[in-house]
Automatic annotation (TrEMBL):
Keyword terms: Disulfide bond, Signal
Organism phylogeny: Eukaryota, Metazoa, Chordata, Craniata, Vertebrata
GO cellular component: external side of plasma membrane
The organism of origin for this protein: Acanthochromis polyacanthus (spiny chromis)
Protein name in UniProt: Ig-like domain-containing protein
Superkingdom per UniProt: Eukaryota
Length: 286
């Protein structure tokens, strides 16, 4: 008895992008890997454009109309969150591989004042299952919330959480770090890290999700699952104790470059189970 088998031949590509978070003044490097490497591939590079009705459309990047010989592409002067994809092609007429999954370079700084992601309560770390309101600003069906988890999973709102209008999302926090941002028909907003703490008896550092600008004032706090800790918190910067008095908050009245570092808090003899990370960007935007 014969069985008929249909073979579909589609070649996958994988885009590797670094760094994931923009470092102002540095370039973004894209690298395209073909699933079955062989000679003769040319590489095509794309910017992803959000489609509110679906996933993304792809716009060729400059200089790649007829493909590049190199499997890498450098983007200079990137200043805000963006998505990229690649595919390879060979032959005449050109046989193209599948588009790669999109990859993103994130910036904590908003590129357009009108499209910005806000987080309430405004802190990077939360306890697992806490509820957080993520908002893309004005209530418009032209905007969506997107997220990318540590395991490389990209989702658009609202396949999770409770949808309240089209741009707000009450979200139960998961373990690990998830990056969130907003997308409109053509633009990407600032991106934020949200980290879920899995130890219900632990403590978290309360620190703002947005990068702070030089000269801003910042207040760091310490929180138990059920309440803010109001006194006798120890604050560490780069593992060095920097405040150990009756206060419950660490206040930095005017942030400068020297305040950059890794912060964490301790309370009641219990050290927080993870190192608490906060990065201060010292960008002069004007
Ligand atoms: C978006 O992409 C996902 C995963 O690749 C796919 O399952 C889904 O069908 C796509 N949605 C649309 C509307 O194209
Ligand atoms: C998010 O986390 C990554 C990895 O820890 C870090 O490099 C990046 O600066 C963070 N972004 C913001 C806006 O805090
Ligand atoms: C957003 O718009 C939707 C539908 O247009 C409406 O039902 C909802 O109440 C609005 N939400 C807010 C917060 O304005």
């Amino acid at each position: 008895i014969g069985a008929s088998v249909t073979l579909t031949c589609s070649v996958q590509t994988v885009l590797i992008l670094s760094p994931s978070w923009l470092i102002p003044g540095t370039s973004v490097i894209l690298n395209c890997k073909v699933q079955h490497p062989s000679v003769g591939w040319k590489f095509f590079w794309y910017k992803t454009v959000p489609k509110v009705s679906g996933n993304y459309s792809y716009e060729l990047l400059p200089g790649s109309t007829s493909g590049t010989e190199q499997d890498s592409y450098i983007i200079h002067g990137q200043t805000h969150t963006a998505g990229y994809a690649c595919r390879a092609g060979k032959g005449d007429p050109v046989y193209y591989t599948e588009y790669s999954e999109p990859k993103f370079v994130w910036s904590g700084v908003t590129s357009t004042a009108s499209l910005s992601l806000t987080v309430n309560p405004d802190t990077v770390q939360h306890f697992h299952n806490d509820f957080v309101l993520l908002s893309c600003g004005e209530n418009s069906s032209e905007r969506r919330l997107s997220r990318y988890s540590e395991d490389g999973f990209l989702e658009h709102c609202c396949r999770w959480g409770t949808k309240n209008g089209s741009t707000r999302n009450v979200h139960g926090i998961r373990y690990g770090t998830v990056v969130y941002w907003c997308e409109s028909g053509s633009a990407f907003s600032n991106a934020v890290n949200i980290t879920g703490q899995d130890d219900d008896d632990g403590i978290i550092l309360v620190s703002p999700v947005h990068p702070v600008t030089e000269g801003d004032s910042v207040i760091l706090g310490c929180k138990l699952r059920t309440e803010n800790v109001l006194s006798d918190v120890l604050f560490y910067k780069n593992d060095r104790l920097i405040q150990s008095d009756a206060r419950g908050e660490l206040s930095i009245p005017a942030v400068s470059k020297t305040d950059e570092g890794l912060y964490k808090c301790q309370y009641s003899g219990k050290e927080s189970p993870q190192i608490k990370v906060i990065l201060f960007f010292c960008l002069r935007l004007r």
